[in-house]
Give the backbone structure.
Amino acid sequence: MKAILFILPVLLYTTTMLGQMQIQWQKCLGGTSEDMAKSIQQTTDGGYIVAGYTGSNDGDISGNHGGLDIWVVKLYPEGNIQWQKCLGGTNTQIAHSIKQTTDGGYIVLGETTLNNLTIDIWLIKIDQQGNIQGQKGLGGTEND
């Protein structure tokens, strides 16, 4: 069974002359494990950037490092995948927000679990192709 990452009908409605909403397009993305979108933003090229998490390593997803990884997906304007990246390690990593930056890359705000015990903030800067340019972990000995 294919897990559903997201369906975009809410963002991609068009209005008819009668004021009724019609779906422009919709997509289901993911693999066979737990996959979830947490943030989506339209990009300057008319496409979309989506961030969340995945436990899959099949279907639309490749490169999972084990456990739950942050999953970033860049979509073309019509909803097809342009590229996708799994970010993380063997523990749990979850993205909560993604924003496009002025240089065309993206900033991801997420969390990472350390030693299966504590949760820290993880801030990641990626380029236009999803490659990590910089990252910062923030937190102490307790959950942050």
